[in-house]
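Support request from a user on the community tier.

User writes: "When I paste my structure tokens into the form, the page sometimes reloads and wipes my input. The last time it worked, I copied everything first. Here is what I submitted, just in case something in the input itself triggers the reload:"
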């Protein structure tokens, strides 16, 4: 079990730290752990998560998740639950995990993790928004800080050590059963991440945040019912979210009671008496073409073995397609095409992509307004560009992308910069990447794209400095320092005129990173 598979263990570690203190803070008490201290604790934990092989930065799924996450943040801000000092101190960053288990989690300092298994399971944006809003509310309500803030000043670092120990332990088969502190295993199987009161508070705050952001209220209920049904069927380990966020019929009933009068009946939602959950294609919450495509992508990337990829073909077989709704057929064709790309069966990928294009362009019953269809066709263009790029046809990929100038969305821009660099247009690629990074210096992937573009220009100092910034963005300060010193050596040995400015930047950044490394040592 890998690090991003084991939030249940991370949650248990946090619960164990509180158990060691033999008391649990009440919801009404003040928080003594400062936002800055909580952020430093979160930073320590995510340094290891960034290095876990299950961590991935998929711009397509990332853009989709951000399209839900940003409205939730804006809603929390408007409701007064996200004060400026907290917003500025915390990271508010989502990390994706290449994992088939259904899980999402909040860590100290405004970091959230989302497994691809969750993205692939939810039936619509509203269900995904309900999970993100719940986790966001754990952060804005300072639940982690409440759990550890009453303890001694060293308690946060003890918690950090426990979490990192749990991540290390998760590399072994027995790791999910223990968290490591000071070399000793602490039995934590019975501990929970948050108290029941905190879970209810996160439900209620999250419901308000989600609905005010414009997401359908029934998303909360249908997601709860989906999780509860799995719990009734004996969780096989694929739903760690259930272990760290145990559900009760009271929580489901509470969410139903908060829906507008008649909304549950109109949506034909199950009652809190644990009625069976409908099959995904019967769920009443409105689905979308784009969501089905992104969910299919998540399922393919989460199970990228040869057998897993070939199984994606089965969903696009005529017999299977006949049982699906039009929107689900779009998802099946998208998943089959992406799987064929990963298997380098490009002719088959092209056939599925062509069928997908016909479904998006011709099927008026495919459950989507003009704007929804436009979003879906954007995903189709990205898929065709991905196909052409994988097949070694960068010019065709640029044509499929259909962007003559630098795109505005991150997913399109990442591909566009790669393609422009590969077709001899590195200066334009570098300019676009550099402009993006002005306000987004924590985007490690874009720094890597800039490094490639600068290298293609022959600007070696700038290229190596960009590699250093990519490492720094993921808090690998040692790696960043090493690359900055390499850039400094290049600049001293044979600097080009255009690289003198970069050489000066390297000198400044080197001193800044050395200071950050000293802070890291003091925090240990």
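"...and here is what came back when it finally went through:"
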């Amino acid at each position: 079990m890998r690090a991003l598979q084991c939030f249940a263990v991370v949650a248990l570690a946090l619960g164990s730290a509180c158990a060691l203190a033999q008391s649990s803070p009440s919801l009404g008490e003040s928080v003594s752990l400062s936002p800055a201290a909580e952020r430093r604790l979160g930073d320590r934990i995510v340094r290891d998560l960034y290095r876990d092989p299950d961590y991935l930065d998929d711009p397509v799924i990332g853009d989709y998740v951000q399209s839900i996450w940003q409205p939730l943040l804006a809603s929390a801000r408007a409701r007064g639950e996200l004060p400026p000092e907290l917003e500025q101190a915390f990271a508010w960053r989502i990390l994706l995990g290449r994992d088939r288990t259904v899980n999402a989690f909040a860590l100290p300092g405004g970091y959230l993790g989302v497994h691809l298994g969750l993205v692939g399971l939810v039936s619509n944006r509203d269900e995904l928004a309900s999970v993100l809003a719940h986790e966001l509310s754990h952060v804005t309500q300072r639940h982690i800080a409440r759990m550890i803030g009453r303890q001694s000043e060293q308690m946060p670092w003890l918690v950090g050590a426990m979490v990192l120990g749990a991540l290390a332990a998760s590399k072994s088969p027995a790791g999910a059963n223990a968290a490591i502190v000071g070399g000793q295993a602490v039995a934590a199987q019975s501990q929970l991440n948050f108290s029941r009161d905190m879970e209810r508070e996160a439900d209620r705050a999250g419901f308000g945040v989600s609905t005010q952001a414009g997401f359908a209220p029934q998303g909360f209920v249908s997601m709860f019912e989906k999780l509860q049904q799995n719990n009734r069927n004996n969780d096989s380990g694929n739903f760690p979210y259930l272990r760290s966020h145990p559900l009760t019929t009271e929580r489901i009933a509470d969410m139903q009671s908060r829906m507008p009068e008649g909304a549950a009946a109109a949506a034909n939602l199950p009652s809190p008496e644990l009625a069976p959950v409908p099959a995904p294609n019967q769920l009443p919450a409105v689905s979308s073409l784009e969501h089905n495509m992104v969910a299919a992508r998540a399922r393919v990337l989460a199970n990228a073995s040869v057998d897993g990829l070939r199984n994606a073909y089965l969903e696009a077989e005529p017999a299977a397609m006949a049982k699906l709704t039009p929107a689900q057929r779009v998802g099946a064709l998208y998943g089959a095409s992406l799987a064929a790309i990963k298997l380098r069966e490009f002719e088959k990928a092209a056939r599925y992509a062509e069928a997908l294009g016909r479904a998006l362009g011709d099927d008026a019953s495919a459950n989507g307004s003009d704007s929804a269809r436009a979003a879906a066709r954007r995903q189709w263009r990205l898929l065709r560009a991905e196909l052409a790029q994988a097949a070694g046809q960068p010019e065709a990929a640029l044509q499929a992308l259909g962007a003559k100038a630098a795109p505005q969305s991150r997913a399109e821009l990442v591909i566009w910069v790669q393609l422009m660099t590969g077709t001899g247009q590195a200066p334009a690629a570098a300019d676009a990447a550099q402009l993006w990074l002005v306000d987004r210096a924590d985007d490690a992937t874009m720094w890597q794209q800039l490094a490639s573009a600068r290298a293609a220009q022959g600007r070696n100092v700038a290229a190596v400095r960009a590699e250093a910034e990519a490492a720094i963005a993921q808090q690998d300060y040692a790696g960043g320092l090493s690359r900055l010193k390499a850039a400094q050596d290049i600049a001293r040995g044979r600097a080009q005129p255009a690289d003198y400015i970069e050489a000066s930047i390297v000198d400044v950044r080197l001193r800044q990173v050395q200071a950050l490394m000293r802070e890291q040592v003091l925090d240990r």
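Agent notes: The reload is a front-end session timeout and is unrelated to the input. The radius of gyration is 24 Å. The chain has three domains: 3-267, 289-400, 405-523. Escalated to web team.
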